[in-house]
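Worked example 2:
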Amino acid sequence: MSSTVNFHSWKRLAQHIGKSRYIDFLVKSTPAICLAFIVYIILNDVFW
């Protein structure tokens, strides 16, 4: 019974962390996405 309550509070905490982590992930991955897009354009120009 206590494990269910513990799991519920952990799940709520994980959701709260997940929202801030999602934003943090977007901020950190933006340069990587831009770099991948630039590489894609360069490769597209080379192969086509």
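The chain has a mean pLDDT of 80. Helices lie at 2-47.
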